[in-house]
Description:
By secondary structure, the protein is mainly alpha-helical.
Amino acid sequence: MICVVISLGFSVESAKEMLEKHNGDVESAVEELASNLGRPDDQPVAGTSKDSGKLEASRKRKEETKKEKAAYKRLAKDIPRTEEDHLDTGLELESEYLHKYLSFLNS
């Protein structure tokens, strides 16, 4: 986690402080660092192409993370939470499902 924040140009101290403040949430830590400091440590003043490229990369990562979280939520609701939630089928019916699935894969 800290490596991601440091790779964006922020100091180790700033990265540690913000990650602790945001309980390890990299997105929130980077967002606060970018908004409060205006620029990563030892980087050009905001508005230069180098700085805006890093900010754009940070935005893209944040957007990708949001998409991943949404995909996980969609997937998680289909995962059984208790033993009783599983599909109770016999071997014949399960075999039928597998044959149908294989036919979809082969077509």
